[in-house]
Structure formats: C-alpha cells, structure tokens
Amino acid sequence: MATTFLFHDVIFGPVKSRRLGISLGINLSPTHTKWCNYNCLYCECGWNPVAGSKPVLPSKEEVIQKLQETLVLMQEKGEKPDVITFSGNGEPTMHPSFEWIVDEVINLRNSFCSGARIAVLSNASLLHKESVFRALQKVDDPILKLDSGGERMSRIINQPAYPFDLEKHLQEMEKFEGNFILQSIFLRGRYQEEIFDNTNEDELCRWMKHVKRLNPRKVMIYSLDRATPHPDLEKVSLEELERIAQKLRSEGFDVQVA
Ligand code: SF4
To answer: Counting atoms of ligand 1 from 1, which one is nearest the CA of 42?
Structure first.
C-alpha cells in the first residue's frame, strides 16, 4: 500500500492550503487512524481500520482548549488564519459533539480573528441529522462532496459503509438551497477488474445535471494530489479539469480548479 497521510494532532497548521489559503485545521477524528463512514479509494488518510476497533475521539473540551491555545500563540506572533477548517483524519460531522464544537469555534473566531472564515470539508453523508445540518448552516463555507454523477460510480469511488442512495444524497444537499460549496474529485482507474472513469461523457453529463440542480455558490474540482490507499488510480490532468470547469463556467457557475 502507498504511504498515506494522517494528522497526528487535534489542531494542525497553520498550513497553506491549495484550495483555502492560510488554514488552521481542526481534526475531530482520532489522531492515529482514519475514521470515516466512507472509504474512498483515493483517501489521503488511507483505509479505515478493521471493523470493531473503537475510535478514540478528542473530547469537545480538548478541541476548544487546543484551538484557543493555538490562536493565542498565533496572535502573539502577529499571525491570523484566513480560514479555520474542519477536516483531518475522517468525516468531522461524525463527532457526537459536532454542533457544540462549531458554536464554540465560531465564538473563538469572533474573539481572535473575526475576518477568518470557518469551513467544513464534509462528505455530506449525515445531513439527515438535524444537528449536523444546523451546524453546517452556521459556518461560512460548508464544502460538500459529490464525486460522481452515477450511484454505481459513487459506490466504487467512495465505498460508503452504508447502502448509498444518490437521490437521497442529492435531496439532502438541496436543503442548502445553493448556499454551499460543492467539491468533486475527478479520477479514473481500475477496481476489482473493472475500469472506471468519472470523466467519461455519461458520468460527466449526469454530474453536470446534479450540479445544475443543486446550484452551489461555488464548485471546487480537483484530482489526485498525494498517495492513495488504492493503487490503480490515475490522476486527471489540469487541462482536463479546466475543460470540465469551462463547461460549468459557461453555465454561469463559479468554478475553482485546484
Ligand atoms: S470522505 Fe474524506 S475522509 Fe472519508 S474516506 Fe473519503 S476522502 Fe477520506
């Protein structure tokens, strides 16, 4: 397996993010393993641990205390983040105190760096939970994942740990009424002897239809950047990403290619 990448702290950075600027990261997942209800073939954090192992999550108090300590240190050095980003070793909305933590992070942001945005990178799988949906509406940039136009392709690429229903996924995202950022990765490869490619004409056509239906205020598209747990994946070139972006831009969408 290729060497993947884990965050070993609850608060990480500040780092220069290719998509977000100077970003201070919050990792609500365990610090030594990934924890997600997806198991994307391309996940930079590697595969999920074997079933049955119990995740050790940071407590909500620990998260806030460590964020405050980091913001104090940054303030002493005259630094400020452009964005405070929930990402890390898994799906942040799975943390049982996600909404409470979001509220407290907003308070800290307002005290230490009122100009910074708060972003959450989420696979959008838990939007049916009221507290998750509420919390994501409170942050500046909910960045929600839709990696494919088709259900079968989504299952291959994202490997959800539950019976994935694309229509339900789209319906939950529609509740944002366009006030969110859509993130989609493009890649191709081989999985269990099957060749897949989410840039093929059919997939792209379906994906574009979903984007128009969801009408996000921004779309971020990207391809592979770091090592992936699944070996047979191919990066999509910047030129191809630009061609996809151009199709959406011609429909009036704000598209960022990372
Ligand atoms: S949703 Fe994100 S954290 Fe979860 S498996 Fe996919 S890439 Fe990794």
So the answer is: 7
